[in-house]
């Protein structure tokens, strides 16, 4: 889902065959970012890098990323020559327009465009999907909270097919659930309890003004994609609980749901969340 959203914004289309292969490469790229070779900390062991295979993987992944992004840029240039000015622009089109005009004083070459697209994918897909997976995990472990969220979303959205931004503004409990999914357990009372209500009773937000809740960082080093990420979080979670009901498979009890973590660039669930999804019946 998050891959499709990023693809639509950046490339103007949902994930096809080539894009799905690109997502696999991105996943390996993010895995490599999370690798901490021992020779990084003990320089005299640097000879080990010739045998651990990391350098070879980095070179292969880098080459594959460059080839895909080069293809994307060239496809957009060909499309520009064929279509009129009335066509919808995606993010790559805007960057290419910026490159052609070059009136801002900033030099934007193809490598810069590739780097920006890569930033969107690497910084947006894994972080967003991981947050959604943890949020859904906690909701399934806490059926009362899940029901409260579903009631709010379904009451606000009603019989509408699509949820829009105006609907999201009214979903205060949804926003509290997302904040609760992103908070640092070291700084809150009852840290192991999933309790979105704590954010209904305070004005604390994650925009960088409250240091007890800074999943996106703050100030100059804050995440530039916070607005986009928030919109994706809220819309994706709202659509899921609006249209579907969820239960654990094979009689698994809520307290038996595995929540162990896997370290890396982001903290994933060690084992993927497996649930039975059924369309909403009422």
UniProtKB/TrEMBL annotation:
Keyword Heme listed: yes
PROSITE patterns, A to Z: CYTOCHROME_P450
GO biological process: terpenoid biosynthetic process
Superkingdom of the organism of origin: Eukaryota
Residues bound to heme: 223
Annotated GO MF terms: metal ion binding; oxidoreductase activity, acting on paired donors, with incorporation or reduction of molecular oxygen, reduced flavin or flavoprotein as one donor, and incorporation of one atom of oxygen
Record's keyword terms, sorted: Heme, Iron, Metal-binding, Monooxygenase, Oxidoreductase
Matches recorded under InterPro entries: Cyt_P450, Cyt_P450_CS, Cyt_P450_E_grp-I, Cyt_P450_sf
Cofactor(s) required, per the database record: heme
Coiled coil (residue ranges): none
One Pfam family matching this protein: p450
Location (main, coarse): membrane
Topological relation to the membrane, as annotated: Single-pass membrane protein
Compartments reported by the entry: Membrane
Gene Ontology cellular component list: membrane
Assigned protein family: Belongs to the cytochrome P450 family.
PANTHER family hit by this protein: CYTOCHROME P450 71A2-LIKE, CYTOCHROME P450 FAMILY 71 PROTEIN
Protein name (record): Cytochrome P450 71A6-like
């Amino acid at each position: 889902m998050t891959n499709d959203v990023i693809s639509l914004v950046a490339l103007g289309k949902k994930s096809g065959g080539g894009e799905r292969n690109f997502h696999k490469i991105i996943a390996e790229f993010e895995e490599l970012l999370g690798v901490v070779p021992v020779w990084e900390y003990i320089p005299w062991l640097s000879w080990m890098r010739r045998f651990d295979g990391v350098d070879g993987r980095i070179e292969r992944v880098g080459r594959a990323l460059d080839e895909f992004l080069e293809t994307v840029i060239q496809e957009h240039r060909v499309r520009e020559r064929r279509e009129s000015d009335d066509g919808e622009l995606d993010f790559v089109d805007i960057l290419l327009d910026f490159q052609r005009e070059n009136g801002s004083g900033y030099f934007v070459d193809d490598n810069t465009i590739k780097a920006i697209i890569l930033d969107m994918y690497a910084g947006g897909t894994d972080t967003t999907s991981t947050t959604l997976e943890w949020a859904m995990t906690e909701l399934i472990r806490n059926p009362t909270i899940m029901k409260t969220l579903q009631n709010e979303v379904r009451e606000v959205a009603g019989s509408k097919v699509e949820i829009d931004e105006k609907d999201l503004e009214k979903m205060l409990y949804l926003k509290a659930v997302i904040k609760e999914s992103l908070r640092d357990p070291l700084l809150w009372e009852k840290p192991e309890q999933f309790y979105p209500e704590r954010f209904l009773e305070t004005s604390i937000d994650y925009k960088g003004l409250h240091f007890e809740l800074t999943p996106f960082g703050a100030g100059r080093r804050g995440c530039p994609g916070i607005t986009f990420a928030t919109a994706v979080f809220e819309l994706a979670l709202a659509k899921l609980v609006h249209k579907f009901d969820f239960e654990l498979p094979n009689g698994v009890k809520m307290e038996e749901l595995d929540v162990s973590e896997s370290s890396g660039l982001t903290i994933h669930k060690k084992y993927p969340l497996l649930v039975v999804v059924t369309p909403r019946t009422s």
